[in-house]
Design goal:
By secondary structure, the protein is an alpha+beta fold. It has 4 helices and 8 strands; from the N terminus they run ααββββββαββα.
Amino acid sequence: MGDEEQATPTLNAADMALIAEYGDRRQVQEGEYLYREGDATNEFFVVVSAEIDVVMTVDGEERVIMSHGPGRFLGELNMLSGLRVYVSARVVKAGEVVAISRTDCEN
């Protein structure tokens, strides 16, 4: 397994089914943001069928840092740390995500 695969694993169908029990399924549209730089968000997202780019603003332009597709997840570090996000997550292909908040995990 390469470094990128270890840093950004893809969930299998069983993992996705388990996670879906804890969160809310949401339809997302192209151009929508799951979160933006500076937001105080504590949600964890699992990509079901959408495609998401993680972007950072550099010199006034958004630059893609990483792309996520089905089975990938994002937002976990901010959920754990409680800190404001320093990147944005933009939907580039409409589809579905599962959003899990800290309160979802506490119940």
